[in-house]
Amino acid sequence: MSAGTLRLERVTKVFQTPEGRDVVAVDDVTLELPPGSFVTLLGPSGCGKTTTLRMIAGFETPTRGRILLDERDIARLTPDKRGMGMVFQSYALFPHLSVFENVAYGVRLRGVRGRDLDQRVEAALALVNLHGLARRRPSELSGGQQQRVALARAMAIEPRVLLFDEPLSNLDAKLRVSLRSEIRRIQQQLGTTSVYVTHDQSEAMALSDIVVVMNAGRVEQAGSPSEVYRRPRSRFVADFIGSADFLDGPVLGVTPEGLDVSLFGVTVRVAAGDGHRVGDAATVVVRPESVRVGDGPIRALVRGSTFLGSLVEYELMVGDQVFGALDPDWMSRGLHVPGEEVPVSLIGSKLYALPPDVRSDTAAHASDTTEVAAD
Amino acid sequence: MDTSALATAGGPGTGLPGDGQEAAARGRRRALDPAVVVALVLSVAFVLIAIVWPVLAVIGAALTDGAIPIFQRYLSPPQNQILVNTVVLGVVVATVGTAIAFLFAFVQVRVPANRWLKRVLHVIALLPIVSPPFALAIAAISLFGRSGMITRDLLGMRVDIYGLPGLTLVMSLSFFPVAYVSLMGLMRALDPALDEAAANLGSSKLRIFRTVTVPLLLPGLASGFLLLFVEALADLGNPLVLGGNFTVLSSRLYIAIIGQYDMLTGSVLAVLLLVPSLIVYFVHRYYAERASVVSVTGKPTGRPSEVSGRPARAMLLGAACLVAGLIVLLYGTIVVGSFTKLLGVDHTLTLRNYEAVLFGYGTKAVTDTTLLAGLATPLAGLLGVVIAFLVIRGRFPGRGALDFGTMLGVAVPGTIFGIGYLLVFNVPVQIAGFTIIPKLTGGAALLGGALAILLVYILRSAPGGLRAGAASLQQIDPSIEEASISLGADQATTFRKVVLPLIRPAFLSGLIYSFARSMTAISAVIFLTTPQIRIMTQQILNETDAARYGNAYAYCVILILIVLAAIGILSVLVGSSTRAERTSGVNVGASR
User: Fold this and answer.
1) I need a surface site. Which of A138, B86, B520, B531 has the fewest CB within 10 A?
2) Does B392 share its domain with B285?
3) pLDDT of B7 strictly over 80
């Protein structure tokens, strides 16, 4: 089984509403998926991630742009000729066929018969740990088992690319976590290039080599999970991945190590992208773990607190700015109650100033999110 | 892995809207599967040639200058009485038929009674579906006619069953089963929690029935009423046998064409019949679709509340048994009559009637009809589900038109297709001197007119397959088909290996419906029979006209037996659903 290289070049999809209005579901998306990579398309519903996946699969045709698999344009190929395995949100198992026949379905279409067929099917079922269930009907399996069959069925055809359309969203939380590590294990074992659509950021983080964050039909950012978390390119990305609050402050100095930004009258050195100039206003991403509660130069009012066991989550207010904070060390310091004033500090090495150009651009498309078709 | 190699979105303003690239993109459509194209072309061709064209031809014939005085004649007194009769008959039959259907459905779902009694009532209620629609009319004449065994011999009355009362009796009994089946489905789907909620709020049983049950079933009742109205309007067999002096549009139209060879008057009457039929039919569809919404939202959580009051129970059961008794009496008359020399006159038992029908001059009618209906059944069934697939899953403009065009096959009264075929196919259709379609009707027609009859059988049955197929396709998650395609199957393979097996129950019922409908059809076919092709329903009519009731009854019994046998054979051929399918078939798509 060899892994394919997939490239999307300036792919756009325009749908027409029944009233004849054009809706841009996917807007000028360019992506390159190296062989063997696991790429997640992440975004809120309506961001165009499912449409993008369905264009790769061939169920939708791009209005513009090219989709290349190993340098060959496949945008006009019907889905059955693309050799991509797909795992569906609703499993989409053939209810009239046994587990064996479901998995054998695609293999048979490739002319494999007899012992070879049996072996291929059994190998696929073994890979997803479904021994001995080959003769069952899909309806006799649990949800998790059904999704394993769907995975085995997609892999059995030895696809160039594996596609996943929110495959875990119908499962309960616990099963979701165990199945997602299994998907990752199998993908790494086989080395198949994979595209995975989800709206669950923790799923995306856990699975991917590359996370592609989409919003309003566009790619907001693509990068490794840590990069996307640590160095978000826009407010949208910072907000969508993990939780984040935003503080604005003037840039006092630009150094190779980062920016000196004044926040609440305190100068903090924060990590930043290029393009900032002294005197500009910078938007700083403040994640709850980048606030230290209990000591520091800033006096904050506790507005609310949520006790989570190992952590306490606080909602703090300074002036009219509200932001969240996590206290992992509450046991030694005690709990704060709403109405109390606490000293806090911002940990500069955990903050990040958004690149200046992207900021205004993002605000522009946030407003046309409503124009995008639901996916 | 090197993620920096990843390019991302182009900036705004690089989308090149409105320039040459845009135009190129518009021409770039999804590559179509060849099998889909073939299916689409064949379906559209069938709908246009076999359905739309004949109907348009009738309308065209009635929109000529010469037609105006005829319109005037039939729209003003005294001739407008025919139109009035038609509407009165439609309303009366629809009212009585819907009431009977409601009674039977209510008894099945809400009245506690012996399980076997309920089953027997159910089977009796379905009997009229598999028999020629005017079989009951003939039996009614024997029982309640001028020399009826019950009215004259038993009660000594001299009543005249011909006309509105008789037609109401037999047509209500003949047509109510369709409304009964759909009402029963709706009643079963009503969420019992609604009744419980109303009771919990302090409503009495009767009040719940009035304020919850009936309003929720109203779309279903309306749809059933309108469907029966259209059936009554379109019916030709019963008015011919039992109409007497009570002339309706369809019977007048028949006389105009067959008796007077007056195509112009026939076309005018056809248009007068067509307009209300079409309007009412599509209003019915509107209500039918609304009614089905109820069944989707209603997820039964308990058992429907049952009628517990003894008097109410006895009354409802008694009424249902009375109607069922009448149906049994009428069908019993048919069976007994088929073994009797002349019912009501000479009660000598005989097998002569069967001899004549099976081994005498009736043989040809039996074989011709069975052969043609047998040919039409798979074709209509397949056409119906293929069109359902195209309409539900296809993504081409004009899907609605294809659906509408196919549904015209039942929305338009059969008599109109009869005339339309005579108008269009009585001469070879030529384009630039080449014969495209040979002469299909009348003398010297291709295959003695068999092809025209076959087409009519198919077009009358395909809508049933379309609706059944569409309903079950809507239950199936489209990703199941996408899964098959992504695994490498083309559309044709996917249809054969995934779609057809999944909609098999609907396909089977479509086939049964199709065969029963073809075997019992008369209103269109009666215009198209030739000396070379004999059709059983028409033979029954001829025998009745000639007062050879014994033969007519024998034909009816044989026809019913053929339909029942076909149901058995089809069930075996297409396969009854297995246990696993029954458990999984229900939740196809429920996993979403």
Assistant:
1) B531
2) no
3) no
Of B288, B316, B350, the position where a domain reaches its end is B350
Given this model, what pLDDT does residue A221 score? 94
Dist. CA B62–CA B268, nearest whole Å:
5
Q: Which of B320, B350, B380 is the last residue of a domain?
A: B350
Same domain, B408 and B338: no
Say whether B447 sits in a helix, a strand or coil: helix
Residue B239: CATH number of its domain? 1.10.3720.10
* Mean predicted confidence (pLDDT) in B28-44: 77
Mean pLDDT of A131-159: 90
User: Choosing among A52, A96, A218, which should be mutated to test the B contact, i.e. which has the most B CBs within 10 A?
Assistant: A96
* Residue B579 touches partner A, C-beta closer than 8 Å: no
Of A30, A153, A364, the CB nearest to B10: A30
Instruction: Note whether A209 contacts B587, CB cutoff 8 Å.
Output: no
The answer to the question of residue B404 being in a domain is yes
| Domain identity same for B71 and B159 | yes
pLDDT score for B103: 94
Question: How large is the C-alpha radius of gyration of chain B?
Answer: 27
Closest of B573, B417, B588, B440 to residue B507, by C-alpha: B573
Place of tokens 């949208």: A236
Q: Do residues B331 and B429 both lie within one domain?
A: no
Is B432 an interface residue toward A (CB < 8 Å)?
no
Q: Per the CB < 8 Å rule, is A222 touching B502?
A: no
- In A, which residues are within 8 Å of B12 by CB distance? 361, 364
Task: Tally Cβ neighbours within 10 Å of residue A281.
Answer: 12
Comparing CA positions, the residue from B481, B480, B487, B30 lying closest to residue A83 is B487
Same domain, B172 and B315: yes
On average, the pLDDT of chain A sits at 88
Query: Who among B14, B16, B502 is closest to A96 (CB)?
Result: B502
Q: Which amino acid is at A345?
A: S
Residues 6+ apart with CB under 8 A from A131: A125
Matching residue, tokens 């739309």: B52
Interchain contact, A210 vs B488, CB within 8 Å: no
Number of domains in chain B: 2
- The band of B25, judged by pLDDT with boundaries at 50, 70 and 90, is very low
DSSP string for residues in B459-516 = HHHHHHHHHHHHHHHHHS-HHHHHHHHHTT--HHHHIIIIIHHHTHHHHHHHHHHHHH
Predicted confidence (pLDDT) at residue B294 exceeds the cutoff of 60 = no
Give the CA distances from residue B111 to residues A352, B184, B186, B258, in Å, rounded to whole numbers and listed in that order.
72, 12, 16, 49
What CATH number does the domain located at A6-235 have?
3.40.50.300
User: Do B295 and B393 share a domain, yes or no?
Assistant: no
Q: Check CB contact under 8 Å for B585 and A95.
A: yes
- Structurally, at CATH architecture level, domain A243-353 sits in Beta Barrel (2.40)
**B83 and B46 within one domain:** no
Q: B76 and B51 share a domain?
A: no
Mark which residues 237-276 of B lie under 8 Å from A by CB: none
For residue B546, being part of any structural domain is answered with no
Tokens of B187: 């009643």
d(CA B163, CA B179): 24
pTM of the model: 0.76
Residue B221 has a pLDDT of: 87
Which chain A residue shows the shortest CA-CA distance from B478?
A92
Question: Is the pLDDT assigned to residue A372 strictly greater than 70?
Answer: no
Residue B10 DSSP code: P
Which residues of chain A lie closer than 8 angstroms to B399, CB-CB? none
Domain that holds residue B142: 66-350
Q: Where are the domains of chain A?
A: 6-235, 243-353
In a domain, B318, yes or no: yes
Question: Does residue B576 sit at the A interface (CB-CB below 8 Å)?
Answer: no
For residue A31, the cross-strand partners are A8
Residues with Cβ < 8 Å from B443, sequence gap 6 or more? Answer: B530
3-state helix, strand, coil in chain A (%, to 5): 30, 35, 35
